[in-house]
From TrEMBL:
PANTHER family: ACONITATE HYDRATASE B (PTHR43160), ACONITATE HYDRATASE, MITOCHONDRIAL (PTHR43160:SF3). The lineage of its organism: Eukaryota, Metazoa, Chordata, Craniata, Vertebrata. GO terms for biological process: tricarboxylic acid cycle. This is Aconitate hydratase, mitochondrial. NCBIfam families: aconitase_mito, PRK07229.1. Binds 1 [4Fe-4S] cluster per subunit. It is an enzyme of class 4 (lyase). Residues 586-713 form the Aconitase A/isopropylmalate dehydratase small subunit swivel domain. It is found in: Mitochondrion. Keywords: 4Fe-4S, Iron, Iron-sulfur, Lyase, Metal-binding, Mitochondrion, Transit peptide, Tricarboxylic acid cycle. Its EC number is 4.2.1.3. GO terms for molecular function: 4 iron, 4 sulfur cluster binding; aconitate hydratase activity; metal ion binding. The gene is ACO2. GO terms for cellular component: cytosol; mitochondrion. Pathway: Carbohydrate metabolism; tricarboxylic acid cycle; isocitrate from oxaloacetate: step 2/2.
Length: 783
């Protein structure tokens, strides 16, 4: 049992030995109920249930459990009968809550509306952070976003009110910072419709990024399915110091595991080095675990988390976690599927990129490497903030660097922007003087939103196609990610390194050894930054930006105009006709990396996230066609003319022709956006055949009734040509674990057969047969 009841039982025993007897009421063994958050006072943390489930599973498995296993298995729908095998079986889970950002919440809420259910079954929230474009500065950009997106914000606010979902208004901050400040806690299982939801692992929770259809399942009270994750252990020893930061830990891990090395696994950090990292630093590390394909990342509960919980007004949660800490840490002797060891004493500042977040370099070598590779060395813009690095500590360390420069009369040579993570962070750094220092050094403080990190950046200093370099404290740096310019070389590093490099204006600067020139012409060296982990005073909450859902929202009207260009009610996808898929055309055979940004671009397309037909006009426009090495240019097999990918797909759909996409490794890595699955389904796609998938995207495809299939032999990718026709056979006997066959029909009349693997379980096969997971949900409701 947890320590509290042990204490009571010992007290009873001790008193029974004394001269006098005292009555210890049984009620003492029942812990006081503690709310999940201040916004949901009647929704309580269920550590007793977690404890009970863990003990059931530990007895069944008869081996020490990792922390990841404890929290995941602690949320099993049926811990007694659930088959459990890491990396193989599918688990049926009961997450504690759901969080949605505004770009993905539109489609999630449209799907929930289609389900016909009256109210969400678990605490859920919507966060307005994705639709605010960085242009002039915080206040002006926020007001502009409110004007432009009024229809969408009104839809989300009223849908939240009607269905019992909390609504964080535009300007409140980035979803993951809001979750860390208010909703994450040790042992929670939270799913969020954004790939960087694992940020909450910095507070000891299993927080997993999903597509909107998964969120709908949980909001509908249906057990959520997840392939039982493997667990990769990262043992940290030593202590961070100097210019090294938490960001360098994940940059190092990304360099080791690559963008797909964490697929299907939870990254579990442990070891004596953990205590040298702040809670928000742990969140940074967990956040960017998405870039290595990990299901999520997590740290064990410790005093740094307790301090953060207390400082953010959640001392009761910290005290309760203390009682249950046995269940919030890994068991001694637990085993990992893979173990990585990092000595923090030896960790150097890193900078990763360009074009991929796993290309790691030390800061002291990046200038030389860039010159050899022909990458631009001059830095046009330095950008700090984002959901990965926008904590009070991050802002403080950057300000510490900037303050030194100002003392010598030096300002940034590069343009410099700052994105606070939340209204609370913005208000607090304004009060404590950090924002002024960062402005004085040449910075522009942007709105509390995602901004340039997701491509919401009205950049004016370069033309599209112009080769240039930017450095950011963000998480992703795919081609065109930040500014839609494929020639922008984006590098990711820590906020303090971004600040130092922005002062120098070049990659040829290492703040550990290099010198800057002051206004007086004298050389000076920057000292390693030091800043408070948390403010000495209490956090300043800033403006109140939360809308509580009413107790009864049944009378609330949710308006979706039939003529809207931003919102569109969903029509159900067609059911499978029971036949094999014959003579499918190949819409595109993709060459190389194909992220969800390539499949469904963000930036200016974000405004159509609630309108499936309109946003489908960006389908695969960023993918490179193997036939001509061009983006958004594919051969129409019916006319033999080359044209845009979406136009070609629409042409096929109009003429009743179904099609497939053929792709390479780790297809669909990056964002959780389910539009990358909805769009191909909407425009007539039936299957996606690749060498391997990113986890979230593979699930999203299944949810929308598509067939995500992988080559049994990756070399078979080369057997398929864009002019071929493909038939997928064996669907009449579609069962878990049994491969399908693909007949390749070449234009000369010859044929060859290859084997395609899949990871469908029985439930997912029912989704395919029904046409989508949502269709299947409705069938079950009717029955």
């Amino acid at each position: 049992m947890a320590p509290y009841c042990v204490l009571v039982s010992r007290l009873q025993h001790a008193l029974s030995k004394g001269v006098r007897r005292y009555h210890v009421a049984p009620i003492l063994c029942q812990r006081a109920k503690v709310a999940m958050s201040q916004f949901e006072p009647s929704e309580y943390i269920q550590y007793e249930k977690l404890e009970k489930n863990i003990n059931i599973v530990r007895k069944r498995l008869d081996h020490p459990l990792t922390l990841s296993e404890k929290i995941v298995y602690g949320h099993l729908d049926d811990p007694v009968k659930q088959d459990i095998e890491r990396g193989k079986t599918y688990l049926r889970l009961r997450p504690d809550r759901v969080a949605m950002q505004d770009a993905t919440a539109q489609m999630a809420m449209l799907q929930f509306i289609s389900s016909g259910l009256p109210k969400v079954a678990v605490p859920s929230t919507i966060h307005c952070d994705h639709l605010i474009e960085a242009q002039l500065g915080g206040e002006k950009d926020l007001q502009r976003a409110k004007d432009i997106n009024q229809e969408v914000y009104n839809f989300l606010a009223t849908a939240g009110a009607k269905y019992g979902v909390g609504f964080w208004k535009p300007g409140s901050g980035i979803i993951h910072q809001i979750i860390l400040e208010n909703y994450s806690y040790p042992g929670v299982m939270l799913i969020g419709t954004d790939s960087h939801t694992p940020n909450g692992g910095g507070l000891g929770g299993v927080c997993i990024g999903v597509g909107g259809a998964d969120a709908v399942d949980v909001m509908a009270g249906i057990p959520w399915e997840l392939k039982c994750p493997k667990v990769i252990g990262v043992k940290l020893t030593g202590k961070l110091s100097g210019w090294s930061s938490p960001k360098d830990v994940i940059l190092k891990v990304a360099g080791i595991l690559t963008v797909k090395g964490g697929t299907g696994a939870i990254i579990e950090y442990h070891g004596p080095g953990v205590d040298s990292i702040s809670c928000t630093g742990m969140a940074t590390i967990c956040n960017m675990g998405a870039e290595i394909g990990a299901t999520t990342s997590i740290f064990p509960y410790n005093h740094r988390m307790k301090t953060y919980l207390t400082k953010t007004g959640r001392a009761e949660i910290a005290n309760l976690a203390d009682e249950f800490q046995e269940y919030l840490k890994p068991d001694p002797g637990c085993t990992y599927d893979q173990l990585i060891e990092i000595d923090l004493n030896e960790l150097k500042p890193l900078i990763n990129g360009p074009f991929t977040p796993d290309l790691a370099h030390t800061v002291d070598e990046i200038g030389t490497v860039a010159q050899k590779k022909g990458w631009p060395v001059d830095i046009r813009v330095g950008l700090i903030g984002s959901c990965t690095n926008s904590s009070y500590e991050d802002m403080g360390r950057s300000a510490a660097v900037a303050k030194q420069a100002l003392a010598h009369g030096v300002k940034c040579k590069s343009q410099f922007t700052i994105t606070p993570g939340s209204e609370q962070i913005r208000a607090t750094i304004e009060r404590d003087g950090y924002a002024k220092i960062l402005r004085d050094v040449g910075g522009v403080v942007l709105a509390n939103a995602c901004g340039p990190c997701i491509g919401q950046w009205d950049r004016k200093d370069t033309k599209k196609g112009e080769k240039n370099t930017i450095v950011t404290s963000y998480n992703r740096n795919f081609t065109g990610r930040n500014d839609a310019n494929p020639e922008t070389h984006a590098f990711v590093t820590s906020p303090e390194i971004v600040t130092a490099l922005s002062l120098a204006g070049t990659l040829n600067f290492n703040p550990e050894t290099g010198f800057l020139t002051g206004a007086d012409g004298k050389k000076f060296k920057l000292e390693a930054p030091d800043a408070d982990e948390l403010p000495k005073l209490e956090f300043d909450p800033g403006q109140d930006t939360y809308q509580y859902p009413p107790k009864d929202g049944s009378s609330q009207h949710v308006d979706v105009s039939s003529t809207s260009q931003r919102l569109q009610l969903l029509e159900p996808f067609d059911k499978w006709d029971g036949k094999d898929l014959e003579d499918l055309l190949i819409l595109i055979k993709v060459k190389g990396k194909c992220t969800t940004d390539h499949i469904s671009a963000a930036g200016p397309w974000l405004k159509f996230r609630g309108h499936l037909d309109n946003i489908s006009n960006n389908l695969l426009i960023g993918a490179v066609n193997v036939e001509n090495d061009k983006s958004n240019s594919v051969r129409n097999a019916l006319t033999q003319e080359f044209g845009p990918v979406p136009d070609t797909a629409r042409y096929y759909k109009k003429h009743g022709v179904q099609w497939v996409v053929v792709g390479d490794e780790n297809y669909g890595e990056g964002s959780s956006r389910e539009h990358a699955a909805l769009e191909p389904r909407h425009l007539g796609g039936r299957a996606i055949i690749v060498k391997s998938f990113a986890r979230i995207h593979e699930t999203n495809l299944k949810k929308q009734g598509l067939l995500p299939l992988t080559f049994a032999d990756p070399a078979d990718y080369d057997k398929i040509h864009p002019v071929d026709k493909l038939s997928i056979v064996g669907l009449k006997d579609f069962v878990p674990g049994k491969p399908l066959k693909c007949i390749i029909k070449h234009p000369n009349g010859s044929q060859e057969t290859i084997i395609l693997n899949h990871t469908f379980n029985e439930t997912q096969i029912e989704w395919f047969k029904a046409g989508s997971a949502l269709n299947r949900m409705k069938e079950l409701q009717q029955h």
